[in-house]
Specification:
The chain is mainly beta. The protein has strands at 16-19, 25-29, 34-37, 42-45, 49-50. The strands form two sheets. A three-stranded antiparallel beta sheet has the order 3-2-5, with no helix packed on it. The model has no long low-confidence stretch (mean pLDDT 82).
């Protein structure tokens, strides 16, 4: 997770777009909302998240 390497304010404050080829990723927004993506998923993740 990001906070193990940098301050939280330095991480994931930009929009990310991604296509998941393999594996899974769980995204947690600053407001606590969660979503998980897997192979074949496309995602647009707004600023204010951790993965």
């Amino acid at each position: 997770m990001c906070e193990t390497h940098r301050k939280k304010t330095d991480c994931y404050q930009a929009l990310h777009t991604q296509y998941i080829v393999s594996g899974r990723i769980k995204v947690v927004m600053d407001d606590g909302a969660e979503e998980e993506f897997g192979p074949g998923d496309a995602a647009v993740i707004p600023p204010g998240h951790n993965a």
